Amino acid sequence: MDQEWFEMRKVRRRYFSKAVWVPLRASQIVESIGKFGHLGHREEFFGAGSLAIPSDQKTKAEKLTWDDVGIGFDHTGYVQNETYTPADEYEHYGGNFRGLHLVLEQRGNRAEHNQWHLHQDLAITLRLKSPVGQPT
Description:
Layout (H helix, E strand, L loop, with lengths): L2 H5 L1 H4 L13 E8 L8 E7 L2 E2 L5 H4 L4 H4 L8 E3 L2 E3 L3 E3 L6 E4 L1 E4 L8 E4 L1 H6 L11
């Protein structure tokens, strides 16, 4: 494995805050070389998740990590302590920070792939339309 790949200079220089297009959710194998589990296998993965947060919560949001917002979660509503939390609402552990998922992942069954849905409010507010017959 070469030193340049290991240091990931191109990835570390990339800042979404300065980008024209920002991925709201992504899960993609960028490159895969060799056979998994065997000597010489190398794989590069890109994943991203996103939240809408109130401006006054920016300092708290900047402390969130990949584990907090990443693509490791699908979205579903739930009841806890007799309170319903909708699928689109993000609540940080401990309840001291809330945000809104901009893309929601709907879990399928064994025969189906999970589906991603652009948050309806975001689509309507930005006047986005999907092709005829296609879900957002």
